[in-house]
Amino acid sequence: MENQKFYYDNKIVKLFVLATIIWGVVGVIVGLLIALQLAFPIFNFDLEFTTFGRMRPLHTNAIIFAFVGNAIFAGVYYSLQKLLKARMFNDMLSRIHFWGWQLVIVLAAVTFALGISTSKEYAELEWPIDILITIVWVIFGWNMIGTIVKRRVQHIYAAIWWYLATFLGVAMLHVVNSLELPISLTKSYSIYAGAQDAVVQWWYGHNAVAFFLTTPFLGLMYYYLPKAANRPIYSYKLSIIHFWSLIFLYMWAGPHHLLYQALPDWAQALGVTFSIMLIAPSWGGMINGLLTLRGAWDRVRDSAALKFMVVAVTAYGMSTFEGPMMSLKFVNQLTHFTDWTIAHVHIAGMGWNAGLVFGMLYWMIPKLFKTKLFSEKLANLHFWIATLAILIYAIPLYWAAVTQWLMWHEYTPEGFLAYPNFLETLTQILPMYKIRIVGGTLFLTGFLIMVYNLYKTMAAGSVEDNELAEAPALVLQGKRNPMQETVHRWVERRGVRFSIWVFIVLAIGGAVEILPMIFIKSNIPTIESVKPYTPLELEGRDLYVSEGCYTCHSQVVRPFRWETDRYGEYSKIGEFVYDHPFQWGSRRTGPDLARAGFVGGPMYKNSAWHYSHFMNPQKMNEQSIMPKYDWFARKGLNLELVPKKIRAMQTLGVPYPEGYDKVAVDDLKKQANEIVADLKKSNIEVKPLTEMVAMIAYIHKLGRDIAPPPVAAAETEETPQKEVKLLDSAEDLAVAGKIFATTCAACHGADGKGIATFPNLTDDEWLKGNSPSEVFRSISNGNITKGMIPYKNQFSEKQITQLTSYVLLKLNKKK
Amino acid sequence: MKIVSNLLQQIEGIQIYYIIGLLLFVGLFIVIVIRTMRMPDKEMEEIKSSILKDDDSEETATS
Predict the structure, then answer these.
(1) In which region does residue A699 sit, left (phi positive, over 0), alpha (psi from -120 to 50) or beta (all else)?
(2) Is residue B27 part of a domain?
(3) Helix (H, G, I), strand (E, B) or coil at A5
(4) What span, in angstroms and rounded, lies between the C-alpha atoms of A113 and A421?
(5) Cβ(A152)–Cβ(A472) under 8 Å?
(6) What parts of chain B have a pLDDT lower than 70?
(7) In the A/B pair of chains, how many CB contacts fall below 8 A?
(8) What distance in Å separates the CA atoms of residue A380 and residue A140, rounded to the nearest whole number?
(9) A229 and A292 in contact (C-beta within 8 Å)?
C-alpha cells in the first residue's frame, strides 16, 4: 500500500518538556523550603503566605501535577504520535491542553499561598480550578482518543493502554472526589461528611498515586525503556496480564490509608486485602521492565538515561512492596502518622517518577533536538548525586519514624507514658529533619546540573516543529474472525471499545468502596450528643481548613492505649457526621487535636493558652516548630458569608433549625463576646470578630460533645492533701528539671516566671498555697478550667514529688 | 439516587459483597491468564518489536 505523508507535532512536546523542567525546579525548591521549615521554623518567615500549612500543598501539587504532570504529557505526546504513526488529532486541542494546564498550575500556586484550600490531600484546589482541570483533562483525552481513532497502525501498543487508563481513572477520581457545594468563588464544602468523605478522599488519594504516578509511568516505561535499550519489552503477555490486574485491583485499596480509624471493619479489611494482592501485578510490571534489559546491561553502564530508568523501575518495585506491607494493620500502627509515609512517598517520587522522567528527558531531548547529549559525564554525575540524595533523604526519615513511634508508646514501669508531651517526641527527631535537608539540597543540585546539561543540548540543536514522516494508511479489519484473532486483540484494536472496558473495570472497585459508605446508614451510626458547629465554630473550622492545619495535626484518635492515654477517648464514626470535609490528616508533626476541646482531658488548653500559642508558639515552648499565627488577632471575619454557609450546611443535611441562617450572625457575635470576656480575665484584649476568636471556638469544640461533664470528673478524682517530703538530691532534681522543661515550661516558662497569664512560680503569690503538700496536690489535680490537666494521670507519685521539689527548691528557692 | 439507597439498605449483609468482587476478579484473572498464554508467540514478538522499527531506535548518541 502507498505511504501517506504526515507531520509529527514536535512543538507541543517541546513546550511540555520545558514546562516539566521549570516546574520541577520550582517544586523541588518549595520542597526544600518546607523541609527547612520543619527543622528551623524561622523559615516560615512570620508571613501568613509562607507558613508550612500553605506551602506543603504547594510542594505536593507542584511536584505531582506540575512537574510529573507536564512530564507525562511530554512523554505521551511524543510516544503516542510515533506509536500510532499519526499527528495529534487536533493542534488547537494540544495548545489549549498545554496553556490550560499551565494556568491550573499558576492558579494553584497563587491560591495556596493565599490560603484558599479545600484541605483534601492532593485535591486541595477550590471548585473553579477543579472545573478548569476537568475541562483541560477532557481536552487531553479527546485529543488522545482522536489520535487513536485516526492512527495508521493496526495494533494499539501496550503503552497506550496505560495512557487510556490514566485518562479514564483520573477523570473518574477527580470528578467524584471534587463534588462540592460552592459558597463563594474561593470557598466550598465537600458534599461528603466525616467517614464518607475520608473514604472518598482516600479512594481518590490512593488512586491519584495509581493513575497519575503509576499507570502513565508504566506506559512511559513500556515505550522509553525498550527504545533507550533498543530491545523489545521482555514479555508482551505479561504486559496484558499485569495491565488488567493492576487497574482492577488498585481501585479497591484506598481504605488502607484509614486503618484503625473511624471506619467500618469491612472497609478496612477491603483495603488490606486488595493492597496485598497488588504486589503481584506491580511486580509483574517491574519484572517486565528489568528483564527487558537482559543481555543489555552493558548499555546501562554507558547510558545515564538507562541508569535512571533502572533506578526508577527498582524504586517502583521497592515502593510497591513496601506499600502493601504498610497496609498490614500491625505495621500500619508504626507507619501511619509518622515519617515512614513521607519516606515511602519520596522513594517512589524521587526514584520511580523523577528517575523515569530524568531518563526519558536524557533520551528524548537529543532526539527531539536532533543532536547529541551535551555531556554524558554530567548526566552520570546527576545520576549519582540523585541516587545518593534519595538515600540521604529517606534513611533519616525511616529512622525518625521508628524513633517517634517507639517514644509514642513507651511506658514507665509505673504504667505512665514515658513521653507524655508530644513535643519531646518531635524534638528527638529534629536532627533527622536536618539530615533530610542535605538530601533535598543534593537532589536539587543534581536537578540543576541536568537543567544546564539539557540547556546546552537544546542550544546545540534545533527542533523541527513539524517533522515529516510517512506510513501506509490503516486498513480497517471489520468484524472479528475467531480463528485468526484473539478476544484481546479484537478489544484493543478499537480505542473507544477498549476505553469502555477499562472504565468498567475501574468503576467496579470504586463502587464497592464508596456506595455502601454513602447509602447504607448502618455504616455511619450517629451519636445523639454530637451537635452541629455553631456559626463561630464553623468560621474557625473554615480557617483551620484553609490554613492547612491538617498537614501537621490529625483529628482522629486510634484505639490504642498509648493514643487514648495521650489524647483521650478513641474516635467514633458518629463524631464526624457534620464534618465537611473531614480533617483526620495523615501525619502528626504536631499532636492530635481530636480531643482539644475535652475540658479535663489531656489535650485541653484554655483560651488564654491558645491565644498566646497562636501569637508566638516558641514563646510557649522554645522547641516548638509551629509557625506564628499572630495575624489571627488582627484579621476580621467575613460575616456576609455566614448565613450562606449555614444554608449550605442545611442543604448537606446538617440539622440546623429552619430559618437559623437569619439568626446565625447574632449567635456568632454572642459566642465571640463570651470568648473575649474569658480572655479579658487573663488580661488579654482582642476584638470579638477576629479569626483568633473563631479558631479558639473551633478548637474548644473538638471532642467536647462526647466528653463527660468536667465538674463530675474532677470531683470524683480529687487527690487529698498529704504530707510530702521534698527530694533534694541532684538526681531527683535533674529528672524533675527535664519534666518541667518538656511539660510545664509551655505555660509557666522555662524560668518558672509564667507566660502571659499563667502563674509565676517564683514568687509567694500562690492561690492554692505553696507548701510541699499544697503544690503536690495542685500538680496532681491540675486546674481544669484554666487548662492545667490533672498530672496524676500522666506521672507517678514519685515524679510529682520530684516536680514539687524542683518547683519549690529550684524555682521558688524555698529551703 | 434514593431508589438505589433504599434498595441497598434492604440487602442483608451487603458489606460482604466485596468478597463477591474478589471472586469475580479471581475468575476473570484466570480466564485472562489462560487466554493470554494461548496467544501465538510469533504475533506477540511482532507487536513488541514493532516500536523499534523507526528512526528513533538507534542507540542513545552521546558526545
Answers:
(1) alpha
(2) yes
(3) strand
(4) 31
(5) yes
(6) 1-18, 55-63
(7) 120
(8) 34
(9) yes
- Asked whether residue A681 falls in the same domain as residue A727, the answer is no
Residues 6 or more apart whose CB falls under 8 angstroms from that of A152 comprise A4, A6, A84, A85, A86, A471, A472, A473, A474
Tell me the ipTM for this assembly. 0.70
Strand-pair partners of A467: A8
The position carrying cell 518538656 is A742
Residue B29 lies in a domain: yes
DSSP A399: H
For residue A693, being part of any structural domain is answered with yes
Amino acid of residue A506 = L
* Chain A positions in Cβ-Cβ contact with residue B39 (cut-off 8 Å): 237, 240, 486, 488-489
Among residues A132, A61, A146, the alpha carbon closest in space to that of A97 is found at A132
Nearest-10 crossing angle of helices A495-519, A194-213: 160
| Main-chain phi, psi angles of A184, to 5 degrees | -150, -175
A646: cell is 449555614
Same-domain status, A691 and A775: no
Do A604 and A733 share a domain, yes or no? no
AA identity, residue A442: L
CATH classification of the domain holding A559: 1.10.760.10
- Cα–Cα distance measured from residue A102 to residue A66, given in angstroms and rounded to the nearest whole number: 8
Residues A88, A91, A93, A94: what is their CA dihedral angle, to the nearest 10 degrees? 70
Tell whether A789 is covered by a domain: yes
- Chain A closest-CA separation from residue B37 CA (Å): 7
Give the pLDDT mean for A759-763. 87
Contacts of A236 in chain B (CB under 8 A): 44-45, 47-48
Q: What does the pLDDT look like over A391-417, one tens digit per residue? A: 999 999 999 999 999 999 999 998 989
Residue type, A706: I
Side-chain-side CA neighbours of A166 within 13 Å: the count stands at: 25
Same domain, A703 and A777: no
Q: Which of A104-108, A134-138, A490-494, A536-540 has the lowest mean pLDDT?
A: A490-494
Write the single-letter amino acid at A220: L
**pLDDT at residue A720 above 90?**
no
User: Rounded to a whole number, what is the distance in Å from the CA of B42 to chain A's nearest CA?
Assistant: 11
Give A303 to chain B, closest Cα distance, Å.
7
Same-domain pairing of A638 and A761 = no
Is residue A20, in this structure, part of any structural domain at all? yes
Residues A259 and A244: their CA atoms lie apart, in Å, by: 27
Cβ proximity of A742 and A792 under 8 Å: no
Mean pLDDT check: name the lowest of A385-399, A513-527, A682-696. Answer: A513-527
Q: pTM of the prediction?
A: 0.90
Residue A280 CA: distances (Å) to CA of A244, A250, A292, A512: 12, 11, 18, 21
* Boundary-marking domain end, from A673, A707, A741: A707
C-alpha cell, A146: 482522536
Do A558 and A620 lie in one domain? The reply is yes
What's chain A's average pLDDT?
92
Contacts of B13 in chain A (CB under 8 A): none
Does residue A645 share a domain with residue A741?
no
**Are A519 and B61 a contacting pair at CB < 8 A?**
no
Show the domain range for A124.
1-156
Query: Closest Cα to residue A502, out of A210, A236, A221, A288?
Result: A210
Residue A288 near residue A239 (C-beta atoms within 8 A): yes
Q: Looking at the partner chain, which of A226, A236, A245 has a beta carbon nearest the beta carbon of B29?
A: A245
pLDDT value of residue B60: 42
Number of domains in chain B: 1
Compute the distance between CA of residue A364 and CA of residue A447 in angstroms, rounded to an integer.
Answer: 17
Cα(A531)–Cα(A657) distance, rounded to whole angstroms?
Answer: 12
Nearest to B62 among A159, A376, A518 (CB): A376
> What total of structural domains would you count in chain A?
3
- Domain hosting residue B14, numbered range: 10-40
Look at residue B20 and tell me if it is in a domain: yes
* Three-class SS state of A233: coil
A566 and A649 both lie in a single domain: yes
